[in-house]
């Protein structure tokens, strides 16, 4: 056991004050029109899942509105083309619980959605998510159980949207450098980096 670890709810709750009324009243069990407006404006969200071995958090992004509101208690999230690891989907097969965090550029508040997901190949739902003639392999049908906004403190502290916060990509290891190192140079890192922009462009959907 790690020294000073908190292991019970009683220990945890003793450290924090009770949440204020706004922190509780902002949560609803459906997609209120105010929250729908944020979701429909978001080009990016994080999807959290829980599997048999560990929890997972994965980015999802597309044009604003790519996560569709089917009704006040249901969201539709296409699984766009990726690396085929399907970590999140494997987790959902094992445990349907999911969390979503919606992020809008320039907006410091985020929207949190908790619920359960099913993986669907329903042709009608797939057809709703076609982009540039390309259909996702599957879609997630998410049943909403809780929705609320997260206050702006984290994004204000991080200065996420400030121009001076932007980090030059070349200041960090490239994808190719990482792959070459971790594979013992079995993967040609320079070739991977050279081909990546075109591969991403042609396989976006």
TrEMBL record:
Q: Which domain of life is it from?
A: Bacteria
Query: Known InterPro entries for this protein?
Result: Pyridox_Oxase_FMN-dep (IPR024029), Pyridox_Oxase_N (IPR011576), Split_barrel_FMN-bd (IPR012349)
Which PANTHER family does the protein's record reference? Answer: FAD-BINDING, PUTATIVE (AFU_ORTHOLOGUE AFUA_6G07600)-RELATED
Please list the residue ranges annotated as the Pyridoxamine 5'-phosphate oxidase N-terminal domain. 32-151
Any Pfam family from its record, for instance, is: PNPOx_N
- What species is given as this protein's source? Cupriavidus alkaliphilus
| Protein name from the UniProt record | Pyridoxamine 5'-phosphate oxidase N-terminal domain-containing protein
Query: Which NCBIfam families does the UniProt record give?
Result: PPOX_FMN_DR2398
């Amino acid at each position: 056991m790690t020294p000073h670890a908190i292991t019970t709810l009683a220990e945890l709750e003793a450290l924090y004050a009770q949440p204020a009324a706004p922190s509780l009243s902002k949560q609803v069990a459906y997609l209120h029109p105010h929250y729908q407006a944020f979701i429909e404006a978001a080009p990016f969200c994080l999807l959290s899942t829980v599997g048999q071995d560990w929890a997972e958090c994965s980015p999802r992004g597309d044009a604003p509105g790519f996560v569709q509101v089917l009704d006040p208690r249901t969201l539709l999230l296409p699984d766009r083309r990726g690396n085929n690891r399907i970590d999140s989907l494997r987790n959902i097969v094992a445990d349907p619980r999911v969390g979503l965090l919606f992020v809008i550029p320039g907006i410091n508040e985020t929207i949190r959605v908790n619920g359960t997901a099913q993986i669907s190949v329903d042709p009608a739902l797939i057809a709703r998510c076609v982009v540039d003639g390309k259909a996702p392999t599957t879609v997630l049908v998410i049943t909403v159980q809780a929705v609320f906004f997260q206050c702006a403190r984290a994004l204000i502290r991080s200065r996420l949207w400030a121009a001076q916060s932007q980090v030059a990509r070349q200041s960090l290891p490239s994808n190719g450098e990482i792959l070459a190192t971790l594979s013992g140079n079995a993967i040609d890192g320079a070739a991977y980096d050279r081909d990546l922009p075109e591969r991403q462009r042609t396989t976006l959907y």
